[in-house]
Each structure stands twice: as structure tokens, then as C-alpha cells.
Amino acid sequence: MTVRWPRLTRATSDARPGSVALREDEPRPGASFRGLTAALRLVWRAAPAHLVAVAGLALAGGLAPVAAARLLKAVLDTLVGGGHRPATLVLLALGLAGAGAVTAFLPLLNSYVIAELQRRTGRRAIDDLFVAVNGLAGLAHFEDPAFLNRLQIGHNAARVAPGSVVCTGLDTLRGLVAAAGFLAATAALDWRLALLVAFAALPALGAELGLSRRRAAMIWDLGPHERREYFYGGLLAEVRAAKEVRLFGAGDEVRRRMLGSRARADAANRRLDRRVLATHSGLTLLGTVVSAVGVVIAIGLAGAGTISVGDVSLVLAALAGVQGALTGVALSAAMVHHQLLLWGHYRAVLATPPDLAAAPALAGELPALRHGIELRDVWFRYAEDQPWTLAGVDLFIPAGHTIALVGPNGAGKSTLVKLLCRFYDPTRGAIRWDGVDLRDVPVEALRARLTATFQDFMCYDFTAADNIGIADPARLADRPGITAAAGRAGAHEKLAALPRGYDTMLSRVFAQDDGDAEDGVNLSGGQWQRVALARGFLREGRDLLILDEPSSGLDPDAEHEIHQRLREYRTGRTSILISHRLGAVRDADRIVLLAGGRVCEDGPHEALLALDGEYARLFHLQARAYGAATC
Ligand SMILES: Nc1ncnc2c1ncn2[C@@H]1O[C@H](COP(=O)(O)OP(=O)(O)OP(=O)(O)O)[C@@H](O)[C@H]1O
């Protein structure tokens, strides 16, 4: 049957949605009122009772020292005035002791409640963050350094920023309450003293806000260095890199590079620390002068009989209290500001535009494949400044057929498969599933119809069962299905014979769930490949099977056996098989030779041999290498 496809009408462009959204030179997200309210909403959702408790504690914490100072004044004035009743003094003393106890205990309680609030909020924030990250259907963002930088900062901010913004904000409130109480008490004695102390706090506020802005900018600038440092640290610590690093004696070089990244980060931190030292020294000097002036004025007023001895004690407490409270307010306001800047990166990740165009609102399920998949004049490049990887591919994959993709390294075979899975959209042209443009279908609906084993498959540090079951999370507990898939991939005997069978960890990096690290095993490369194939097989019944180099790591017997199984499995199914072993793909319905991003040859094995083109040359080359003169 010949299927005629309608002409393409979709406007195409080089720009992939969202791909230019997060650049290194983009203005950084600023602290904003919306950021504050978003943090507050999150904390309220995650830990409402704790939020109320922290607010109550903040209010009590602000009032307690003022109450203590007022009680002390009353005690002193009562004592100096004479003629007092003992009961009054006892009551005052008890009140004073109570205020002192509250002042001492509040911070302990506060820390406990804040820690729990932080934990709950952090968990919720991280969950929201990774829901958003999971929602990015394509791969483009994960290859964008600016996005990765933002994600790392956002991830760190998620743990602490929202809780910290709210708690430190309440701390600021507590400081303001305390400062207002002390200022009112001081103003009642002498308003000039109150003004002097209040104005002395303003430079601290400005300086701390400036420092917080610098700190946040520095975290952004250091992100790439720190990511590199983690990367080098990983090379030194991870078992996957250990062989090459040791054999090549590359450890010292990697360590030097790691320390280089650390040194750049340290240098920037040092510059900031010097600025902090200079700023805080200036502020401390200012505070000392203000205190000294305040003390001299108060003693002068007491000497002149204008204020009482108790008033002097109140002024001394107020001076220290106001200064401490206002410095605390400046510090915590700066901290809120700093956390809001980092929180802005978190919110920016949540607001990251999708890198794939959304399907039309009414797009529904994708029907089972009946006719075939067509690539019509497909062009693709990974970025605008990179060369074309696919340059006008025209290809029809009929339903129920096996198409083998062959071609030199870098020809674009895996890229083509990635477009079929819609990890990227074509830069130009279109891919149609029974005539429906893939961009007009929800991406999940498309992927539900695919199964694949990729060339760079994952080796999960999971149990054997989970390593296979993860291919279809709804079937993680479907042990018969998992063992059947493993059987089809020729992995069952090996996995069943492991110390804990399918419950054995395929890792020596993590212990079993019960903490026993002894039973974890490492598989060989070929065994891992079979597990990866089993994952593909678990998703049986899908419309399109993609196998990218499914047997590259297998021994000859295993390769023969796997290809035999694949042949049986593929019969009547639509599949795409990529392989450099041309002998393994000769029985495909059609063999497509990609080169330079285009389809150069296309036809069954015999037809391509008869054509005597590039495929025939490569096939004979391999056949000779295997010692087979004729094929
Ligand atoms: N994520 C990426 N970002 C940028 N360029 C990429 C990316 N992946 C692949 N490329 C480039 O695209 C080209 C085609 O790569 P692809 O992996 O599709 O080739 P292939 O035909 O599968 O090669 P091989 O036979 O070696 O597996 C290569 O030049 C490669 O450098």
C-alpha cells in the first residue's frame, strides 16, 4: 500500500522553544515582593502550624528583653526610692526572673521549631523543583550550562531559602519589636538619645544589603567553578572513572584541575570576606562611638538629677538593646534579601519555558501505528552555532517493518532516533506518525507508544528487578513480567543466580535496603547490556522498538543468540535497529545508510549489495575482516 502524505504546512524555525530562555548574560532574578510571597505561600503549605509557632515566638522574643529592662528599672527605682513593700519587690524580682528565663529559653525553642519548619519546607520545595524539572520533556535544557548553573543554585536554595526567608523575616520583625520597645523607652527619657541610636543603625542596613547583593552575585558567578570542582571530585571518587584515572596516572592532573576550580572560588570568597571585614569594622566603630556618646549623655543627665539611677540602667540596656536589635535587623534583612536572590533562581527554574512546543490544547492520545512514520525533509542541529547533524532526511518507516540504520560515526543515526522519541524537535521539516505531526501529540502519548534501548544506556545503582522494572514504573512489582523480559534478553539465568536473585543490588556503591553491602554485585559490560535490553522488552506491545547498538558489548555467541531473539521479537513489529555490525542487520526489511546527515542508500541487503555503493563496500570490508570471502 502506498500512503500519500499531505504537504507540510507547519511553519518551522531554527529557534527551539525555551532554548534561549536562560543564558549566562541574562539579568539575574532579583529579590521581589512576589518572591517573598511565594516563599511565604510555600511555607504555609508545608508547615502551617510551625509558621504560626515561629511568628508567636518572634513576637515573644521581641517583647521579653524590653520587659526585662523595664522590670529592672522598676526594681532599681523601688530600691533607691526606699519605703517599698517586700511583696512588691518579690513580685518584681519574680517578674524579672521570668522575663530572663523566657529570654533564655526562647532561642532554644525557636531553633527547634525553625529546624522542623525548614525540613518540611525544604522537602516540599525540592519536590516542586523536581516536578518542574521532570516536566521538561526534551533534552535541550540539560545541555545548557546556564540552566544547569541555575538548577544547582535553585536546588541548594530549595533546601533553605523559603524557610530561611520567612524565619529570618520574622527574626527581623522580632528585632524591630525589640528596637521599637527600647527606642520608645529611651525616647521617654530623652528623644535626642533615641534619634542618635536610631540613625546610627541606618548605615548598617545599607551596608548589609549591599553585601548581600554581592554575595548572591558571587554565588551565581562561582556556580560553574563549583560544578567543575564537583565534577573533578567525582572523577577522583567514582568507581566508573577509577580505572582510567588510575591506569593513565591522571589522578594528579584531575586533582590539580579540581584545586584550580576551588582556588578560583576561594579567591572570589576571599575578596568578599575582605569587603565584609572592612564594612563590619566601620560599623562596629560607629556603634562604639554612638554607645559612648549615649552613656556620657545618660550619666550627665543623672548627675544633673534629670533622670533616676534606674533610668540610667534603662538607658544602658536600651543602648545595647537598640544597637543589637537594629544590627540584627540589618543582618537579617540582608539575609532575607540574599536568600530571595537565590530563591529567584529556584523560581526561575520553576518558570523555565518548555524546550518542546506544546501540543494543541485538544490533542489527545496517539492511535496505534497503522501505516508508518515519515520523516519529511528533516533538518536538525543541536544549536544555532553548530553544523547541521541532519540535513534534509527523507525516510518512511512502514508499520510492521524493520529498518536498519547504518553509517559512519557521527552520521546522525542516534540523533535521528532522538528526534523520533521527541527529545528534540526537528529544526526544519517534520516527522509524522500516520500523518500526524509528532508536535501535535502530547509527548507522553508518543513515548507511551515507544520502547528503546539506547547506545548509552543507564546502569542504575538499583536492584536487578528495579533495573528492569524502571522501564515501566507501573510494573515495578510485576516480577513475572520482569523475569520474562530478562529471559528474552538472555539475562534471566544470571540474575536469578545472584545472591538475592532479582533483589540483589547491581551496585557496590550503595548497600542493600537492609544495610548489607556484601551482597551487591557488579555486572560485566555485556551483562549490563542484556539488562538494558530487558528494560526495552518489558515495554512489550509498544508500536515502535528502537535498538541503538543492542549487541555492541556481547560475545559472539551472545550476539548471535540476541539477534536471533530480536529477529523473533521484531517479526511483525515496527523497529529501528542501529548497528555497525552489518552482518547483524542484513535481514532487516530495509537498510538505510546515513552519511553527512542525509540518506545516501536505502533498500534491502541484496539490493544494496547489487548497487555496489558505500554499503556494499563496508559490508565486504567487514566480511573480509571476519574471514568470509563471500556473503
Ligand atoms: N547532545 C549533543 N549536542 C551537540 N552535538 C551533538 C550532541 N549529540 C550528538 N552531537 C553531534 O551530532 C553528530 C551526530 O551524532 P550521533 O550520535 O547522532 O551520530 P551517530 O551516527 O549515532 O554516531 P555513532 O555511530 O558514533 O554512534 C556528531 O557530530 C555529534 O558530535
Automatic annotation (TrEMBL):
Residues of the ABC transporter domain: 373-621
Transmembrane segments: 49-69, 89-113, 191-211, 283-307, 313-336
Keyword ATP-binding appears in the UniProt entry: yes
UniProt-annotated location(s): Cell membrane
Record domain ABC transmembrane type-1: where: 52-338
Gene3D superfamilies according to UniProt: ABC transporter type 1, transmembrane domain (1.20.1560.10), P-loop containing nucleotide triphosphate hydrolases (3.40.50.300)
Tree of life domain: Bacteria
One annotated GO molecular function: ATP binding
Keywords from the UniProt entry: ATP-binding, Membrane, Nucleotide-binding, Transmembrane, Transmembrane helix
Mode of membrane association: Multi-pass membrane protein
Main location: membrane
Protein name: ABC transporter ATP-binding protein
Organism field: Dactylosporangium salmoneum
